[in-house]
Amino acid sequence: MHTDVNTLFENLWENYLNVTPSADKIHDLLGSTQKDDIINDHIALRTFNIEKVGLEKLAAHFLAIGYKECGEYHFEAKKLYAKHYEHSDPNQPKVFISELLVEKCSPELQAIVTDMVSQIDESAVTADNFLYSGTHWQVSTDTYKQLLAESEYAAWMSAWGYRANHFTVNINTLAKFDNIHNVNQALKDAGFSLNTSGGEVKGSPEVLLEQSSTLADEYSVTFSDGDMSIPSCFYEFAIRYPKADGELYTGFVAASADKIFESTNAR
Fold it and tell me: Which CDD domains does its entry note (predicted)?
């Protein structure tokens, strides 16, 4: 497993940029001339609650480099469970890992997911590159569409596998912007489409976190029976507010995260 947190995030970022070309353009748009004010607030990863690849297996990669478990979240309608992790160095990105509760899904979905996971080599899960290793299987376009009809989350995993589902710009550290509304306006003016599920801005100063996100890029995937362009990954934007003790809130708001998941929905 990685010993260096910076190397891990550099690799996750490069892998993410490969299928999210808009992220580079957004970086240029929001950053000052030095670009060093674009701090990554958090990344998110997806998986299934099958022991071989469960949330804890992904978390192990982060626990090994100084992260600790901080909060848990339930998404009943989407059949998801999640935890978030923070590094001992508060300047390092937070990590949000979710898993699909496969047993709550249809027998058909369970069979497809079980088959996909069975194709992953045990040793791959602990390898340095697992968190950005993509898919270890290939499904057909029909299988993808079948999963999509039941769970966008499962369909996304079938096409993209293990990689950062999104990175997040920390608005608190930007030189050119001091609120989420101006960030959103700049993105729209530049032609980017925002996720409007639950409103363009999810959350509020009252819950100490405001978030927005682009809609995922459309990117071509090679399925077992041909290529198809589908939603890949997206870019999120977050501004955090101080708690009563003056420290910035570092957690997540389940009601907001629930809508952020929908950034990868088909347009």
Answer: VOC_like
Q: What residues contact 233, with CB distance under 8 A and at least 6 apart?
A: 16, 19, 20, 23, 160, 163, 164, 165, 166, 216, 217, 264
Q: What SS3 class is residue 31?
A: coil
Percent of the residues in the chain that have a pLDDT greater than 90, as a whole number: 93
Residue 267 confidence (pLDDT) above 80: no
DSSP string, 104-120: GS-HHHHHHHHHHHHTS
Q: Which residues of 168-181 are buried (b: 16+ CB within 10 A; e: fewer)?
A: bbbbeebeebeebe
Q: Which residue has the tokens 């934007």?
A: 237
Count of C-beta atoms within a 10 Å radius of residue 228: 14
User: Among candidates 209, 228, 226, which has minimal Cα distance to 171?
Assistant: 209
pLDDT at residue 187 in the model? 97
Residue type, 32: S
What tokens were used for 34? 């030095």
The span from the CA of 17 to the CA of 36, in Å, is 18
Dist CA 99 CA 261 (whole Å) = 12
Tokens of 62: 């982060």
